Predict the 3D structure of the following.
Amino acid sequence: MATKVTMEALSPTMEEGRLVKWTKNEGDQVKAGDVLAEVETDKAIMDLVARGDGVLRKRLANEGDASPIGTLLGVIAAPDENIDAIIGGAVPATAAASAKPAQANATPQSSDQSQSEAPAPPQQKAAGPVAAAPPAPRPASPPRPTAPPPPKGNGARPGATATPGGRQRSSPLARRLANDKGIQLGGIQGSGPGGRIVKRDIENVKATSGAARSAAAERLAAEGDFKDVPLTLIRKTIARRLAESNGPVPTFFLTAEFDATRAAELRAQLLEMGDEYKVSFNDIVIKAVALALAEHPEVNAHWLNDKIRHFNRIHVAMAVAVEDGLITPVLFDADRMTLWEISAKARELAAKARERKLLPEEYTGSTFSVSNLGMFGIDQFTAIINPPEAGILAIGGVEEKPVVINGALEVRQRMRVTMSCDHRVIDGATGAKFLQTVRRYIENPLSLII
Amino acid sequence: MAVVTYRDALTQALREELQRDDSVFLMGEEVAQYNGAYKVSKGLLDEFGPMRIVDTPITELGFAGVGVGAAMVGLRPIVEFMTWNFALLAIDEVVNAAAKMRYMSGGQFKMPMVFRGPNGAALQLGAQHSQAWESWFAHIPGLKVCTPGTPADAKGLLKAAIRDDNPVVFLEGEMLYNTKGEVPDGEHLVPLGVADLKREGDHCSVITHGKMALVAMRVADDLAKEGINIDVVDLRTVRPIDVEAISRSVQKTNRAVVLEEGWEICGMGSQVVDFIQRECFDDLDAPVLRVHQEDVPMPYAKNLERAAKPDAGKTIAAIKKVMYLD
């Protein structure tokens, strides 16, 4: 029986993927799990694996082609099996149905494709505009109720993704939308009754980062690692009013200048001790932020539309510039890492990011973010919040400045930071108190290594 | 377009069809001398005379049967019941004679007749006189059932019902006779079995019929002020039901509330929900909710009667629930 090879959702946010390289040739024998091709997602280069056994009979995409999720890229089948129908797009319902169990839930093979009377040929679909996967054609007029019911199995859509904790509830529409968009339901926080995933939750996934869907997010959602705070009426009103006035994330900014003289001295001393003790200002800031977050759980939070989630664990994302964009690898449990562990891990993640080798679980699941442009000579800047996180800290460069201390002019190392806050979650005073704590750590850096 | 009452729209329909076709006649209690209990036949006796506007004794079963016989021999009777609560006495003629005759005679007899009268609760008329009967008659193959909510629909549907060769149960809203609305000038026909989208919105579908169409339109106008825009699908005819109109709306809004005047169990809404779950399963973002009369005989006491009836408040609550706003 034939198995389709389709463009799969290999990153939580990808809408199309570019086939970098086929690793199997037409005619090669393949087993389920074998790597068929390398696919470049919006985040990294990932392996596309076979979902069934047989011979790779046909490769429909060329190397370098970009295809929306769900596009047919190839066919795995028995050596003598007739696959014309699949390639032609007119998939017999039985073949489609039997191929389905072999495919992961992530496979966004639209069941509408097999349902519709005249599905668009896949080649045509591949040529279509990015992300504009056309809505599945619907019969022009729904059958009257007197019409005979469709044959069993045809028209059945894949159910909700089961989660370890049991069945994930979701509305039929949410399942269809997720299926169409190639989104996995596991890990999405449903906002309906009993945690039911509804339409708006799927739309939010599309609108925000992939944080909520990854393995890391599932780890985050593990019981007891967070506290959900029901929205009070005033909180709801603040959220609604501010979002109306200021886009989807009503952001405000708090800027502070820290004295980094002692931090600079500490760095210098550590460097004298040897390369293995070397830390960057960025490492110092991450450690300070992580410790401050531990003291301010209301900042270590996600906005989840119907509630605010305060996390008990602290996962700090750091923005890393890559060749054609930006990615935010995560330092998990950063508050429990030593400064040197942070330093080593940050270097490792940054290197992987630049090679585009980060795995989805390495760049999703953060609870707060830090962005540093100090090394580019930027004094201060504002960073954009990575939803559903409630804040991000933008770090400027450390430079010598004249400062008045106790009535006397002194030259000190100064660092300007700007915190972007989601006002639905963080109020001005909350953010300011958090920054005070960050300041305390940065200006007393010994506290970071003891 | 002229603004007329629901009552006058019905009278216009009767007059126009009586003028158009001399096989059409009206009979019932008090329809002639008294101009009808609700004055729907006002002036018709003077215009058409006692052979075509016929007062009957207080014998619902008897004159309904006379109507069935007249239809069998080629006339087009309109049988008025003073209220549909009284029509229970005649239900054997409606269900076992009128609804079955074409079928059991192998099509030898047509049944071009209309049973009409006020339906549903008015105000404090007590349990026996405050009932909505549409689901009873919609249950019966062989009948068509109209439930107009506006003057325009009342006129257009009644004219179409009189011209139909099948028995039509025509349920007028007892509380609607004095309501006003625009009615198109000239010949105005509304085909049976076609719903009307009375308000348009993307957020939720309210599917309703009869008197409740007015409630739904008021709800739509109120919710529009909160930025919630709903589709109001007025079925107008509850047998046959316009399933396509329901599907079209629910597939657009992904959520539905079904509003009706009658009781919950085996009500019209049960059938509508069934159509929705079959035709729109993958479009639904929330369970379909229903708004209907409480499952009790209508109380007489004013406050209890109000509590028992479906209303705008209950409808808005249901809409917000399916939109996950509550």
In short: Chain A has a mean pLDDT of 78. Chain A has three domains: 3-126, 162-207, 228-449. The CA atoms of residues 116 and 137 of chain A lie 6 Å apart. The radius of gyration of chain A is 26 Å.
